[in-house]
Cellulose-binding family II (Pedobacter cryoconitis), 409 residues
Amino acid sequence: MKKKLLQIATAILLLATGCSKNQPQPEFTRENIGNKQQSTNAAILATATIDANTVQQKIQGFGGASILTWIADLTSDQRTKAFSTSSGIGLSILRVMVPTNSSSFAAEKPTIDVAKSFGAKVIAQAWNAPPSMMNGVHLNTASYAAYAAHLKAYNTAVGGVYAISPFNEPNYSPSGWMEGTATEVANFVAAQGSNCGAPIAGPEPLNMGQTFINTYLANTAAKSKTSFVSGHIYGAPPYNLGNIGKEVWMTEHYTNSSISGNDWGNAMNAAKEIHDCMNVGWSAYVWWYIRRSYGPIDESSNITKLGYVLAQYARYVRPGYTKISCTSNPSSGVYVTAYKSGTKLVMVIVNQNSTATYQDFNFSGVNVAGFNRYFTTSSANLSTNSFAVTGSSFGVNLAPSSVTTLVSY
């Protein structure tokens, strides 16, 4: 009897330690984080279900800003580290400022050209119109055509951009830059949106305000001339804007400018923020300054922890991929988004737990032989290994406080 009980106990233990329902558990290279039964969260785990047949939004990318009016341009090394998918972060969006003085237009071009060479989209934003076109902090209605010509000249000077936003945070009065109500922004786009040299992005409110955006889009002429809705999330969490008939891009945010980009807790906050933006249906996430002490690249040209967290998304979820249906929060502290491109499946998993966490997955609508795994922790940057799967179910151990990207093969 004792022997039989021992055999049963051994069988149960073997089942518990398996990482896949069909094959041995993949290891975390040197950071072996333990087997399923060692996870303190095992009792509250649930399966993350991915349906590749249920397509959600198209992904346009992940990026950051280079604003020459306020800081020096990126160096050659910093450009490569920002945009390369092999040796850098893999950013696929560059945000730049449209200067008020046309003599400064050409200064933007070197970084724009390098970003494009890596396949990045460039979006240009105007904080102000030239002073001669302003009435205080407002755009003079009599200067609509002249302002559109100014934006078009910029677009020509830099060799073309993916989109231009004529206003930046027009609903933020303390800023000191060009203000406008949603109606005023819409009136300009309705009148001159076709004459700005590039597709229009807007209306760019500070807090991605639903009322501001809806009022802007209520102008049917402005809506028809708007390529995608853009805005920032200062003071507001990401949320679903509903069926507005346009892609939504989050085009500026940073989490904390007073601490280092290497602060791991803050980097994990950014990871969850990116997850949230994708989970509510947005197509792009753009950080503030690319190079800054609190940014993805520091002032010494090093990729920071924040940068490696961005890379977990930007390198592997490329423009044109689509987000697919996925259990977003299958277990306490675990957050998942899933994407596909053709037959490729990509998952990004944020584990906020301070302990190793085992997570089960099942998927449908795509055939997978295995996954290349990339993960970043407080002590590892894009560490990698791979594992095979059989069938449509598997499980992985997630390192404590980590971001993991799984790319199918």
Remarks:
- The chain has two domains: 20-55+323-408, 60-319.
